[in-house]
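[recover] target loaded
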């Protein structure tokens, strides 16, 4: 996967007509991610919905996954923009969002993974000028 994004990696596997092989991680120990990534899984999913994984544990797992060049996703507890973005901030390649019942909920989940034009740094640059106007 070196030099390409996680999504491109998975798409390449699908285009080659091979099913991607992934697994859920519920352990807090990032060594689990290292072992499973080294075993050849194409991707791993951190279970923050039914498991004890929080953002701090996710960060350790992301670093472990990077060391073995394996994309890692996070299954979050709900379709919440702040929650989804907080997991994206620690470096997961994407999220699995539960209970998506309609197109509107799907659109909201996808939008939560995106930062507007310029990203967060762009918004941070706007902050001082907003203070000056007050």
């Amino acid at each position: 996967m070196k030099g390409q994004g996680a999504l491109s990696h998975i798409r390449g596997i699908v285009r080659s007509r091979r099913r991607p092989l992934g697994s859920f991680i519920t352990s807090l120990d990032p060594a689990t991610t290292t072992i499973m990534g080294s075993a050849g899984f194409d991707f791993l999913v951190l279970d923050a919905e039914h498991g004890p994984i929080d953002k701090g544990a996710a960060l350790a797992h992301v670093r472990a996954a990077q060391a073995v060049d394996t994309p890692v996703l996070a299954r979050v507890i709900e379709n919440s923009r702040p929650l989804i973005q907080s997991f994206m901030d620690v470096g997961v390649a994407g999220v699995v969002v539960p209970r998506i019942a309609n197109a509107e909920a799907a659109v909201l989940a996808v939008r939560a993974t995106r930062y507007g034009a310029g990203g967060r740094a762009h918004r941070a640059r706007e902050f001082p000028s907003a203070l000056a106007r007050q």
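[recover] notes: Helices lie at 6-15, 31-38, 55-67, 81-89, 103-112, 119-132.
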